[in-house]
Design goal:
Layout lengths: L1 H8 L16 H15 L6 H8 L3 H7 L3 H16 L3 H6 L5 H16 L2 H13 L4 H27 L7 H21 L6 H19 L7 H25 L4
Helix pairs in contact: 2-3, 2-5, 5-9, 7-10, 7-11, 8-10, 9-10, 10-11
Length: 248
């Protein structure tokens, strides 16, 4: 009987909890959902597939998001906000030289859009924006428009006294010329090496500036040659006039 007394005198243990699935944070759920949406496409993705990948109960997902569309938009919005380059980061890259500044800014923007997160966003927004135009509108409002506003302001500050142009259009042209081409090609599956991207960036920055800036003044010798050619043309015209004039 003694062992029974010993057992009776021990403090009672709390009941053991049954192990359950850990609940993901909302950020982790959105990241996992975006991976599935990108892999399978919006139409083929189901809440069951997302919950299976996330290890989360379906009712937990529905407590947070009313349907698949709401979950998709929330996942995409989070990814866009995480991916955007802060304008302060672009400003910090500025130098006194406009070409060097454009080169640095172009490299930052291009590196960002061609990162795994950037290409993922580009592919999924291209695939779904036709059916959900609000996706493209959100991307433009949050990411593209502030970047264009910064570029226009930077060009105006550095070139305003040297060129007369529409700086908003110039900013758009720069973004398409420097960033758009490689990003689109890579999103389509065309592999570009780092050296090729660097050459592209340098070439397009110079091409952009050559189109924007007025032509340089000719060197003194070239200016003199132009003056002499003009005098020669005038002399030949005068000679031709005298030959054609009626003789007295």
């Amino acid at each position: 009987m003694e062992p029974a007394l010993e057992m009776r005198d021990r403090p009672a243990r709390p009941p053991r909890r049954k192990p359950g699935r850990p609940t993901l944070s909302n950020e982790a759920l959105l990241d996992k959902a975006l991976d599935i949406f990108l892999e399978m496409g919006f139409e083929r993705t189901s809440i069951d597939a997302i919950t299976a990948a996330a290890g989360m109960a379906k009712r937990t997902v529905y407590l947070r998001y009313e349907d698949k569309t709401a979950l998709f938009k929330a996942a995409l919005e989070r990814a866009i906000n995480e991916w955007i380059v802060p304008i302060a980061h672009l400003r910090a890259a500025e130098t006194p030289e406009v070409e060097e500044t454009l080169l640095r800014v172009g490299q930052i923007l291009l590196s960002n859009v061609m990162s795994p997160a950037g290409l993922r966003l580009l592919r999924i927004t291209n695939a779904e924006s036709a059916r959900m135009p609000e996706i493209g509108a959100y991307t433009c409002r949050i990411g593209t428009e502030p970047t264009l506003a910064y570029l226009a302001d930077m060009l105006r500050r550095k070139l305003g006294d040297r060129v007369a142009t529409d700086f908003d259009e110039a900013a758009l042209a720069f973004l398409h010329l420097v960033v758009g081409g490689p990003a689109t090609a890579t999103a389509w599956g065309v592999a570009l090496e780092g050296a090729a991207i660097e050459r592209h960036t340098q070439y397009c920055v110079r091409l952009f500036l050559n189109g924007l800036l007025p032509p340089a003044r000719p060197a003194p010798l070239e200016a003199e040659n132009q003056r002499l050619r003009a005098l020669l043309v005038d002399a030949m015209l005068e000679l031709s006039r005298l030959r054609e004039a009626p003789k007295p």
